[in-house]
Design goal:
It is a single chain. The protein has about 375 residues and is an alpha+beta fold. It contains 18 helices and 9 strands. Among the domains are: about 140 residues, no CATH class; about 100 residues, no CATH class. Strands 1-2-7-4 form a 4-stranded antiparallel sheet, with helices on both faces. A 3-stranded mixed sheet has the order 8-3-9. Strands 5-6 form a two-stranded antiparallel ribbon. It is elongated and about 70 Å long. The chain binds cobalamin. Cobalamin binds next to helix 6, strand 7 and helix 8.
Length: about 375
């Protein structure tokens, strides 16, 4: 069955395919508890460890897993822009959740011609640990930046897998192979120092996380977000294992990753959905992109947008007000001091507290 599935997948153009029978990930429990204790985890992860570590809690009939790595970012060069935002190449083109699910669905249909089975397709949104499952399926090895990397695609591969009730005898590649050795490039380039010296991530510092979270972004992290509107590619672009992929020839127009922030600032929710709703990076909604645009304006010192941001001090959202005040301070401290002082008496305690912090000079930008 295994050889037949590989043959079918290769015929469909899927080159990175592997299998595992490991269904019990209890061996990771200590690692997860330590991460939580160190506050390195985040709100995007399933909190119930039983759902994350035991595949049969998600799909009781599961006996084996068919995993794939699907490449992206071929020929990717970060588009240059001095006065606009940028979204990550992970969000280029069709939402990868739909794209990978379709590929896996087509694979199931093809395998069904030989053998019917029960299955569940997972891409990103399952509580299971995609990278551990795919590592065990021999799709790749972990880099220090915590990404799964292989020789064909570097780390620029989306991961997906099919939980099945098939009896497949897999190799189960549980061991960690150190592919980075003395290389520390990703650790050194990460603007927020989110990558730990020993490998792995303090996810709460990762720029990708900061662009997606709805929680408060500490002032000292904002500067390092640069012009990121969604996601971050810095550790991957610097990784030597990705050199071949980004040097490949491609007709993809990556300038589509540049986001017009002036337009974004004034967009309605429905216009946002029309323009960006089909991108994987739009899942957090317009206001989070808008918050990131406001941070970008401060970081890129786009003085021509001062009045545009100033208007946002009248926004009904505390979040938008707080970041606007910070951005205005970054643009023009003198002018903003007067503006914020005049607003203090109208604001609630949370917003007032933030304005006062900025007025006291607690501004690391
Ligand atoms: C929450 C989440 C995030 C969070 C947290 C990421 C994190 N590192 O924990 C944030 C928002 C920061 C994020 C960012 C990104 N994400 Co994300 N994310 C997820 C999600 C939904 C869960 C991850 C999770 O469970 N984390 C908990 C930790 C413990 O698991 P882990 O990160 O996979 O860690 C494993 C290994 O990396 C390794 N490991 C971790 N630390 C260490 C330390 C050492 C010393 C060693 C040896 C190993 C090791 O062991 C862990 C257990 O197997 C997964 C999908 C899923 N369901 O798994 C996608 C997923 C991990 N994300 C993905 C992508 C593409 C990204 C971004 C590149 C997007 C972008 N351009 O902005 C960045 C990359 C950031 C980075 N350097 O990891 C892909 C990764 C593909 C790949 N080739 O690895 C996934 C698998 C989605 C998918 N199906 O394609 N993501």
């Amino acid at each position: 069955m295994k050889e037949k599935i590989i043959e079918i997948a290769n015929k469909m153009g899927i080159k990175s395919i592997g299998f595992t029978n490991v269904l019990n990930y209890g061996y990771l429990e200590e690692f997860f508890l330590k991460r939580k204790y160190n506050n390195f985890d985040n709100e995007f992860e399933e909190q119930d460890l039983k759902k994350r570590l035991y595949v049969n809690n998600i799909f009781p009939e599961c006996k084996s897993i068919i995993s794939v790595g699907i490449p992206y970012a071929m020929g990717y060069k970060k588009p240059r822009t001095n006065d606009n935002g940028l979204i990550s190449v992970v969000s280029f083109g069709e939402d990868y959740h739909n794209y990978i699910k379709r590929i896996l669905n087509d694979l199931v249909i093809e395998i069904f011609k030989y053998n019917k089975f029960k299955y569940l397709i997972c891409v990103d949104t399952s509580p299971l640990i995609d990278r551990e499952i795919c590592k065990n399926s021999n799709i790749g090895s972990f880099g220090k930046n915590s990404l799964l990397i292989n020789d064909s695609y570097g780390s620029f591969m989306y991961l997906g897998y099919i939980l099945t009730d098939l009896d497949i005898n897999a190799e189960n590649n549980i061991k960690h192979i150190d592919i980075c050795k003395d290389c520390n490039i990703c650790i050194n380039v990460c603007p927020n120092k989110a990558i730990l010296d020993e490998g792995g991530l303090n996810t709460k510092k990762c720029v990708s996380y900061l662009t997606q979270t709805k929680t408060y972004i500490p002032i000292e992290y904002r500067k390092n977000m640069g012009n990121a509107i969604y996601g971050c590619d810095i550790c991957q672009l610097a990784c030597p294992k990705n050199k071949a992929v980004i040097e490949m020839k491609s007709t993809n127009d990556y300038s589509k990753l540049v986001i017009d922030i002036r337009e974004l600032m004034n967009m309605s929710n429905s216009d946002f959905l029309k323009k960006y709703g089909n991108l994987s990076g739009s899942w957090r909604g317009k206001n989070i992109w808008k918050r990131n645009a406001i941070i970008t304006i401060g970081n890129l010192k786009i003085n021509s947008m001062f009045d545009l941001v100033k208007n946002e001090l009248n926004n009904s959202s505390d979040m938008i007000k707080i970041y606007s005040a910070w951005s205005l301070m970054a643009l023009n401290r003198h002018k903003t001091t007067d503006i914020l002082n005049s607003k203090l008496k109208y604001e609630n305690d949370i917003v007032k507290g933030e304005y006062q912090k900025l007025l006291m000079g607690d501004l690391l930008c």
